[in-house]
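User: Can you predict the 3D structure of DUF3040 family protein? Sequence below.
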Amino acid sequence: MPLSEHEQRMLDEIESALYADDPKFASSVRKTGGTGGRRPAGLVVILGLVGVALLVGGLALDFKPGGFPVLSLVGFLVMFAAGVLAMRSAPSKRSSSTGSAGGARVPGTGKASSKGAEGQSYSSRMEDRFRRRFEQ
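Assistant: Sure. Here are the predicted structure tokens for DUF3040 family protein:
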């Protein structure tokens, strides 16, 4: 769905403010691009399916040199590699959430700030409450 002219202008203003505020972060975001997480997803799925096929095929076939299902071990290692690739290519939630809950909190606004945080997840709210206990 394309953006309206107003939305496009707002997005351009936000982008220029980001470049003015933190040029190093903005250049790193521009280098990685917005679709960096989508490309390895297909590879992860294919590796996972190949790993499952090797795992099950190794158990089903009678090919067990030394009595050990080597083909199943290879299938497990392929699935493990797919999992590692998926974990490394997934965007980090922690880096985005710590930026919003960083040191910009005003002392003395403890309960008032949590009232407006209804859009946050349960774990984020619990983390905020835990931090506030030690800030007081």
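The helical segments are 5-21, 23-32, 39-60, 70-89, 93-100, 110-115, 122-135. Residues 8-34 form one domain.
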